[in-house]
Amino acid sequence: MTVTLHVCITCRAGQPVPEGEPVPGARLHDALAAEGAPDGVRIVPVECLSACANGAAIALSAPGRWTYVYGRMSAEDATEILLGAAAYAQAPDGIVPWRERVTIFRKRSLARIPPIG
């Protein structure tokens, strides 16, 4: 089963962005793509996760698993995000034990959504 790491590529993260410059969400997506997704994870750009006040935002989801939304991410967090995504992919229900979660996932969680069905 493939886990999806959604990355808001339109997020300005509350920052002014000069015309023609990439927004923080797009920079985050580029950094994640440059490092490459771990096994079982695909990185998907999305246009808005409606977490604008807490951007740049990402979400982890997969069928039959809990979905997590995280905010206040940046391109500098790419390595830790991918480590957290790999742990999520290995958890059968998407719930990684609290102490095993990467620090930014423990501290920057915006929402946890139950599986559908």
Automatic annotation (TrEMBL):
Lineage: superkingdom: Bacteria
Pfam families: DUF1636
Designated name of the protein: Metal-binding protein
Organism: Paracoccus versutus
